[in-house]
């Protein structure tokens, strides 16, 4: 597998995160640079940068004189991270509702349409990428850069588990429906509809996370 140089390290880090989410790499597994260079068909420099990105996001950890390992997280840590992300989303969507522009609404609507297209063939990876872009836009469009920065730092730690959640049966359909409801709330400036939809999404995501963690 090889990638364009412009986003090489970032894309490698995303691929490794997905391998973790799919169970190909498990908590405690060591990540060897030499093996990764062969797998991704690249030199050590972008591999090291990708591992640095994952370390910064809290997905892997570097142990002195031992190497880089997939980070182990407790159930409580994961639930706490999810809770913070959803509280940040509440703030971002509340701010966005009051300031949203037609151009922003059009961008959100187009992303949801593209997500719907991924249902044919169950294209989880494509749907996940669009979902990540959509959530990031909620924070960018809120106009609060501190909020955006907090979200990006915390969300990176949840990427493997968010991918797992989206991979569960009917999860893509539920996610798209929930985001469509949020979109309708933004259009109509209906905060209750927005927060109710977000609460349903949070409840469903936490149920999947608990089921996954308990099965490990």
From TrEMBL:
**CDD domains from the xrefs?**
WHTH_GntR
Q: Which residues form the HTH gntR-type domain?
A: 6-73
Q: Which UniProt keywords apply?
A: DNA-binding, Transcription, Transcription regulation
The source's domain of life comes to: Bacteria
- Record's Pfam families? FCD, GntR
InterPro entries tied to this protein: GntR_C (IPR011711), TF_FadR/GntR_C (IPR008920), Tscrpt_reg_HTH_GntR (IPR000524), WH-like_DNA-bd_sf (IPR036388), WH_DNA-bd_sf (IPR036390)
Membrane-spanning ranges: none
Q: Could you give a GO molecular-function term held by this entry?
A: DNA binding
Instruction: Report the PANTHER family cross-referenced here.
Output: TRANSCRIPTIONAL REGULATOR, GNTR FAMILY, UXU OPERON TRANSCRIPTIONAL REGULATOR
Q: Tell me what this protein is called.
A: DNA-binding GntR family transcriptional regulator
- The source organism is Cytobacillus oceanisediminis
